Here is the input.
Amino acid sequence: MEALLEENQKKMDAQRQAEEAARLKQEEELRQEQEKELARLAAEDALLRMEKESDAKIARLGANAACAEALSSMLAASVGVYRGIVEGLEAMVTSIAAEPADIRLRLIRIRNEDFQERLGRQPGVWLFLRALGFQALSREDLPTDMVTMLNLSSSPPNERFLLLKEPDMMNAYEEWTQWHKRLLSVANFLQELGKLAFQRIAHLGRHGQDVAASEILLAKELLAAWENVIPS
Here is the structure.
């Protein structure tokens, strides 16, 4: 009888331990979900603030000057980081200019981690893209045929995207030409900017990547070069 009671007690203890472990696991999963939701809401708030700040700056400065200011604000980073940002933007703009009809190149999924890691979290990038012409839209604001073609129907209606619209080449050829010419000019400028940054640290070797970009390139020099190269 004592052995049977002891065995039952062990089973009850094991059951209680299992139930407690399950409860703790459920609480931890709930806590993680709440943290994710808070992080998502915080990211959305930050995104909306960036949109408003960028729109206000573009309205005040104009698109071209806002692009130049964005590139200048990136000079606070190290040369290695700065070159990474500039080269990432240059690759994006070059691809669009080479295949302007490819909507996949002109649509950025903001939550895409690869985009966030390379560019999205870097200072000045949002302002640069907005001033370049990218519009901030939710999934439900995208054209229906685009959503279908890119298999975005399953994404949340409020998911945010950046879309660079292409002027209608057939019905507004002059506008399209100016749009495309500007993209080419921006791509070439970014390419030369990346080369210049590398040339100015080449004598420093590997340690040059850690130097502040503002030490090898002055903001006023960048702004002047931009104004000379990029058409208004």
Notes: The chain has a mean pLDDT of 88.
